[in-house]
Amino acid sequence: MRTFGLSLAVVILAGTGTAAAQPELEGATLAVKLKPQIGFVDDPFAFDGGGGRLLWINADADKRAELRIVDLAQAGAQLAAIDISKFTTSPIRADFVLDGNRYFVVARDSDDAALTAALIDGAGKVVRRFGPATDIRLRQSARAEVVTYNRVQQNPKKGTPTIQHNIAIYDLASGRRKVQRQLVAAESGMVAKLDFRIVAFASEYTRVMGIKGGVWDKKEDQRTPDVEAWYDLAAGKFISKVDITDVIAHAKKQKLLADHPNQDPFLMVAEDLSGLHLVEGGVARRVELAEVFHHYDHKSLQVQSAAPGATIYFTMTIDPVHPDAVARKRAVTQYIDLYELKAGERKATRRSRLKRPGNFLFRATGEHWAVLPLHLGFSRGGTEMRVYALK
Question: For the chain, how are helix, strand and coil distributed in percent, rounded to 5?
Answer without folding.
Answer: 5, 50, 45
